[in-house]
Specification:
By secondary structure, the chain is mostly helical. Helices cover 86% and strands 0% of the residues. The two termini are 25 Å apart. This is AtpZ/AtpI family protein.
Length: 65
């Protein structure tokens, strides 16, 4: 049987991974799109979209009953 704090540590690590990975992935896609299209604003849009999607996934997995 695992200690209770191990489960909360794992949950915190998973949530942190979502929070970091979402903006990084979508920001990177925005950076590639910026380079390809010659624009300069898609990185910000990608990072905001990634953060929003990450928060939504966290809410779906852990916030809803």
């Amino acid at each position: 049987m695992r200690p209770v704090h191990a489960e909360s540590d794992q949950l915190a690590a998973t949530v942190t991974a979502y929070i970091v990975t979402g903006p990084a992935l979508f920001g990177g896609l925005g950076l590639l799109a910026d380079h390809w299209l010659g624009t300069g604003f898609l990185v910000l849009i990608g990072m905001l979209a990634g953060a929003g999607l990450a928060l939504y996934v966290i809410w779906l997995r852990y916030g809803s009953p």
